[in-house]
Write a structure and sequence with these properties.
Elements: H1 2-36, H2 40-65, H3 110-117, H4 126-139, H5 149-153, H6 168-191, H7 202-211, E1 220-222, E2 225-227, H8 231-250, H9 260-287, H10 297-321, H11 323-328, H12 332-346, H13 366-389
Antiparallel strand pairs: 1-2
Helix pairs in contact: 4-6, 4-8, 4-10, 6-7, 6-9, 6-10, 7-8, 9-10, 9-13, 10-12, 10-13, 12-13
InterPro entries: UCP029693
Transmembrane segments: 6-28, 40-62
Protein name: DUF2333 family protein
């Protein structure tokens, strides 16, 4: 009886698979039969269109699957521990290391000669450098997926974010961009000016405006109708503006206000941003338990991952830019622990994202796991803020 029952189940499953295959293959077989009976003048244009579509989709699939420059430990190359606080003036080189200027007045001291020859030099901002490099990774080292034509067209009219595939990289890039956007706003409002009373730095303002641009723009759009500048062009302009600010800062011609209250506000904004993402993950995890078949779980996960990836780099840079504040408030251990929590979260890289029940035993719940790590990071940020507020 039992063996007969399982035999029937397997036979029914086999029939279902065969019917599904026939349903999928029939349109292609019918099209092939129609194509084979056409004249060569009809076949050639159709073949050309199919070749072009195949090339476009091949390029699109390649760009979505190959993540160039992705490295959770990429901040190590900046050697942040060797940096001074951002905006701090660097010492003038010793007189013996500076070439003597011709025609130096008699009796001029070596220090005076050095000051005359060597211009002032200040420490550029690691936060600005990291923000520029994160954006460069998004739009120069990789294609910006969200504004590619085939991504905008969707999968047979279905938004790619509502599918199980080819949307992970786009969500990751948008998560990174969210971190850079927040950072650019804080650079304009507080960090790049003195106590909020000085004028706003024009380069930082330009960078913030360009980074806030719509993430989905292609060369042509319907709302509004007409030709447009694509999203990557704006983000590339933002990279140039960020580099220009750092160049001016290195020449002591710009300001980086590395006060403790500015760090408090910066940390608070990041904690709030991560708290919002944790709420999104919680809502999806609690109300949708599709396991491996939840079509929105992957983009929620990879957006959160990209956000953590970006903020890990930004906060690592902030530790260098605010090194004097960190030392004075004895925050080194707490900041290092926070960064360790970031690294622990970034080690979670499942091949397939699952949104199962939290008490389930077959399908894991990656969203709840990521939400847990985000809340741990946020808890550390709140503690840093409390110490700075004392």
């Amino acid at each position: 009886m039992v063996s007969e029952f399982f035999s029937r189940v397997l036979a029914a499953a086999g029939r279902a698979v065969r019917l599904a295959f026939v349903a999928i293959a029939w349109p292609f077989m019918a099209a092939h039969g129609w194509y084979r009976q056409r004249h060569l003048m009809v076949k050639l244009p159709i073949l050309a269109v199919l070749v072009v579509l195949g090339a476009f989709y091949g390029y699109f699939i390649w760009q979505t699957q190959v993540w160039t420059g992705f490295d959770p430990n990429f901040v190590d190359r900046y050697k942040l521990a060797e940096r001074q606080a951002a905006g701090q003036e660097r010492p003038v080189p010793a007189a013996g290391s500076v070439p003597q200027a011709t025609g130096t007045a008699a009796g001029a001291s070596p220090a005076t000669t050095a000051a005359a020859v060597v211009p002032r030099q200040c420490q550029p901002s690691a936060i600005v450098e990291v923000a520029a490099d994160l954006t460069d990774q998004n739009v120069n080292q990789n294609a910006w997926i969200s504004s590619m034509l085939l991504y905008r067209l969707g999968f047979f009219g279905i938004d790619w974010d509502h599918t199980l595939f080819l949307d992970n990289k786009a969500s990751f890039q948008r998560g990174v961009n969210q971190a850079v956007r927040r950072t650019s706003a804080e650079l304009v409002d507080t960090l790049g000016r003195v106590r909020g009373t000085s004028g706003i730095n024009g380069d930082l303002q330009d960078a913030r405006g360009n980074l806030q641009f719509d993430e989905f723009s292609w060369y042509f759009g319907l709302d509004p109708f007409g030709f447009k500048t694509p999203t990557p062009a704006y983000y590339r302009a933002a990279i140039k503006s960020l580099h220009k600010f750092n160049t001016d800062l290195a020449a002591c011609a710009a300001t980086f206000d590395g006060r403790a209250d500015n760090l408090v506000q910066f940390v608070d904004r990041i904690a709030s941003d991560l708290g919002s993402t944790a709420a999104i993950l919680r809502e999806r995890s609690e109300n949708y338990n599709g396991g491996w078949f939840d079509t929105r779980a992957d983009d929620r996960f990879w957006f959160a991952y990209g956000q953590l990836y970006g903020y890990y780099a930004v906060l690592s840079a902030a530790q260098a830019d605010f090194s004097q504040v960190v030392r004075e408030r004895n925050l080194t251990s707490l900041v290092n622990d926070t960064l360790a929590q970031f690294r622990a979260a970034l080690r979670i890289q499942p091949a397939i994202i699952s949104n199962g029940r939290e008490d389930g035993w077959i399908m894991p719940t990656h969203l709840a796991t990521m939400g847990f790590y985000i809340l741990r990071v946020r808890s550390n940020l709140v503690e840093i803020r409390a110490v700075l507020d004392r």
